[in-house]
Amino acid sequence: MNKVAIIIVNYNGLVYLPDCLASLAKLDYPPENFKIFFVDNASTDDSLNFVQSNYPDIAIIKNQENTGFALGNNIGIKQAMSENFEYLFLLNQDTICEPDFLKKLLAVIEADHQIGAVQPRLMLYPEKDKVNSLGNAIHYLGFGFSAGGYQQFDNNLQPRKIAYASGAAVLYRKSTLEKVGLFDPDFFMYHEDLDLGWRLRMAGYDILLVPVAVIYHKYQFSKSIKKYYFMERNRFICLFENYKLATLLLILPALVVMEAGLFLFSLKSGFWQEKLKVYAWFLSIDNWGKIRKERREKRIIRVRRDRELVELFTGKIENQEIDNWILKYLANPIFNAYWFLVKLLIIW
After folding, report:
1. Distance (Å, rounded) from C-alpha 66 to C-alpha 226?
2. Same domain as 113, residue 49
């Protein structure tokens, strides 16, 4: 059977670890064919002692500082790759796994080498009848969000293509990551999974949701200022690095209008200083140099045109915590109509 590395990046996750690791202890997969890598981002709680005392077979990687979600996972992935694991499964610390999830994911990804990644069906916990993510969606202006969030599961158990897989629970091939690269460590957190998913599809791979594989996620939405900065900055990085120039020009009017609205929102919500920090980041020549470098590297692996890539993009943001009447009745209809027209013009 395939050798699988399960990588958990932990930061002060003691409250979640007993349930998460207990569920993995029941995993219906030969113990000799999987290994758990626990990457600790300099936690200040008792996480490390808990793991060392209760799960001595888990491989622990201790970081001296909080390296963030992106680099933390990269450290675990590189260690697993050096030990010749064929598949890398990333798992959030705040999850509970069904025993057969891994077998079901492997059955799908093994069937077709064009599949670069697969995601299980993520359900909320303790509201186990509601969806957390049926794969993640990409709005054409760079927003990434969970498809089907907070809704009842539609009972469609067939694997299906998605725009990108949630970093909370995703299985990657080692050979695929060797070709397209790992997470961009500069993202620190948020949108790193969107960027990698975009890159995978750009390189000709498909990403599938596997609904029969189930994991529960103790997801809690946070409106922190720090989160707002990284989400907004990284959204723009994804747009500037991944779209072709002609596509960027086509979406520019909508991007400008959206930015005006978001800046007004930041003034009302108190996030305006973080919004200004995002703009300041893009005033740096060095940062634009990195973006140009990444665009060149992605051009090397690109086999799909933007026209093919945007087939799975959306013009609406739905079923999210930020849902309100402005988004539902004003923003979504306008930006979705613009996207409908723009997609007709994307031929590259």
Report:
1. 14
2. yes
Contact indicator for 169, 120 with CB cutoff of 8 Å: yes
Count of CB atoms situated within 10 Å of the CB of 226: 12
Placement of tokens 């200040």 in the chain: 44
Give the pairing type, strands 131-133 and 144-146: unpaired
CA distances to 123, 168, 219, 248, 284 from 216, in Å: 5, 10, 9, 37, 41
* Entry pTM: 0.94
94: closest CA among 6, 4, 18, 187? 18
Residues 266 and 207 in one domain: no
Render pLDDT for 289-326 as a digit per residue (tens, 0 to 9).
999 999 999 999 999 999 999 999 999 988 666 666 67
Same domain, 135 and 22: yes
Per the structure, the count of domains in the chain is 2
Q: Are residues 271 and 172 in the same domain?
A: no
Amino acid letter at 102?
L
Q: Using CA atoms, how far apart are residues 343 and 348, in angstroms rounded to an integer? A: 11
Q: Which residues constitute the domain of residue 175?
A: 4-217
pLDDT digits (tens, 9 = 90+) for 70-106: 999 999 999 999 999 999 999 999 999 999 999 999 9
- Beta strand ranges found along the chain (DSSP E): 4-10, 34-41, 59-63, 87-91, 95-97, 115-124, 131-133, 136-139, 144-146, 160-161, 169-173, 206-217, 313-314
Residues 195 and 138 in one domain: yes
Residue where a domain terminates, one of 217, 251, 266: 217
Last residue of a domain, one of 171, 194, 217: 217
* Residues with pLDDT less than 70, the chain: 221-226, 319-325
The two structure tokens encoding residue 329: 């009745």
On whether residue 222 sits in a domain, the answer given is no
Tell me the two tokens of residue 117: 């990644």
Contacts of 267 (CB under 8 A, 6+ apart): none
